[in-house]
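Data card: per-record layout.
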Amino acid sequence: MTRETTHLRLGVNIDHVATLRNARGGADPDPARAAMLAQSAGADGITLHLREDRRHIRDADLPAVMDAVQIPINLEMAATQEMQAIALAHRPHAVCLGPERREERTTEGGLNVAADANRLRDYITPLRAAGARVSLFIAPDEAQVEASARVGAQVVELHVGAYAEFCAAGDDAARDTELRKLFAAAALAQELGLEVHAGHGLNFANVGPIAAIPELVELNIGHFLIGEAVFVGLEAAIREMRRQMNLARL
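The structure for this 250-residue chain is written out next.
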C-alpha cells in the first residue's frame, strides 16, 4: 500500500452549522442540507457530535442527516448510557467515543482509555454487536493506542489539536515533536490492527503534514470548513480541502 494508491477519506463535521442555527433559533441553517452539500462536494462521510448539553447538534438532527445522505455517518458522543441508547436506536455506520466536559468549548484532549479500560470494553461490546464501527478519540500516546486495541475498538482517531496549536503559534520545534508523536502513534495503531483517523484543528495551512502520515485512512474536519464556507461556500471549502489532502499524498 502506497501513498499514491491510498485514498485518504474526508469526513466533514457539520456541528457548527447547528451552532449557527441555535444562535438564532428556528430551523436555519439546516444541518441536513449542509450534509447534502458536503456529499455533493466529495465528502466521504459526515460527522456529527451529539453532546450531552445539545449545544449544537440535537437529537432530531441525527435521523434527518441519516435520511438526507448516502455516505456513512459518524456519530461522535460521550461514553454514557444515554448516548449508547441513541446510537443503538439509530445505528449509524460509525460511533466515535471521546471525552466531554460541560465547561469546554470544544473537545480538549483525548479519551483516557488506559484508565477506563474495563468500562469501555463493556460499553463497546453492544455497539459492535449492532454493527457500529467503534472509534476512540485519543491523544497520540503509545499507552492509549495499546489500550484502544485491548478494549475492542476497531479505529482510533488521533487528536491533532496540539499540533495545530503549535502551527498557529509558529513554534516549529514543538510542532515537529508533536508530528513525530503522531507518526509513531499511527504506525503502532496500524501494527495492532486498528484503522487510523485524525482530526481537530485542521485547516488548509496545516493539513498537509498530517495527510502525509501513510497509515492514516480518514481525516475529520469541521469548524474550519464551516467558517471558510462563510466566505467561499461550503462546497468550495470542501473541494479545496480535498485538493490539499490529495497533494499531500503525491
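Known properties of this structure: The longest helix spans residues 172-191. The CA atoms of residues 89 and 208 lie 37 Å apart.

See the next section for split statistics.
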